[in-house]
């Protein structure tokens, strides 16, 4: 249900659910399921499929660079 939600989206969702509960009863101390469901209608995910693909590509590139750097360091150890 929260596909594409990042930490800040979940934070906003919880805040909105809390506000929904307070709108129903200013003295409430409980946020219920219906408050969260109403919040899901108002708060949307920021991670798009295109952004996810971009971050996965960067992750792959960084892992490749790290592996290459690690291999180069191990080959250089005998020359120091």
What would you note in describing this structure?
- With 80 residues, this protein is mainly α.
- It has 2 domains: 1-47, no CATH class; 48-80.
- The protein has helices at residues 7-24, 33-42, 49-76.
- α1 (7-24) packs across α2.
- The longest helix has 28 residues, at 49-76.
- The protein starts with 6 loop residues before the first helix and ends with a helix.
- The relative contact order is 0.13.
Map the helices and strands.
Elements: H1 7-24, H2 33-42, H3 49-76
Structural class: mainly alpha
The total of beta strands comes to 0
Q: What is the CA–CA distance across the termini?
A: 55 Å
Mean pLDDT metric = 89
Count the domains: 2
Order of helices and strands: HHH
Rg calculated over all Cα atoms: 22 Å
Number of helices: 3
For the largest beta-sheet, the strand count, sense and barrel status come to: none
Low-confidence stretches: none
Shape: elongated
Could you name the key traits of this structure?
80 residues; mainly alpha; 2 domains; 70% helix; 0% strand; elongated
Summarize this entry quickly.
The protein is an all-alpha fold and about 80 residues long. It has helices spanning about 5-25, 35-40, 50-75.
């Amino acid at each position: 249900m929260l596909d594409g939600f990042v930490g800040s989206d979940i934070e906003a969702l919880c805040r909105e659910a809390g506000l929904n509960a307070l709108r129903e009863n200013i003295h409430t101390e409980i946020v219920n399921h219906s408050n969260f469901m109403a919040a899901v209608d108002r708060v949307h995910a920021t991670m798009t499929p295109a952004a996810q693909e971009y971050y996965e590509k960067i992750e792959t590139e960084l892992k490749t660079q790290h592996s290459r750097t690690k291999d180069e360091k191990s080959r250089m150890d005998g020359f120091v």
